[in-house]
Amino acid sequence: MTTQRIEGLPQFAGWHRLTGREREVLRQVAQGASSREVGQRLGISPRTVEVHRARIMGKLGARNTADLMRIVLLDEAGRRPTTPPPATSPE
After folding, report:
1. How many domains does the chain divide into?
2. For residues 33 and 44, what is the distance between their CA atoms, to the nearest angstrom?
3. pLDDT score for 56
4. H helical segments located in 1-91
């Protein structure tokens, strides 16, 4: 098992439990791709994507896809990752 971070996602609690393929699937799902779209992009069937998603949810303790995204988008301390505030224009 690799310990690479998932490109485009913050490091979340449990990310290290996922296989490389599960991380690929999760990255696509987090970007809003359907099982069919993920399957086409990764060269696997939509059913295989659903199996990966179910395993990801089990490993991370997610009850549904919304819960999965909540887990993934929170940092390890349970906070949203910090992003710089938008620039304000001088008036």
Report:
1. 1
2. 14
3. 92
4. 20-30, 35-42, 46-60, 65-73
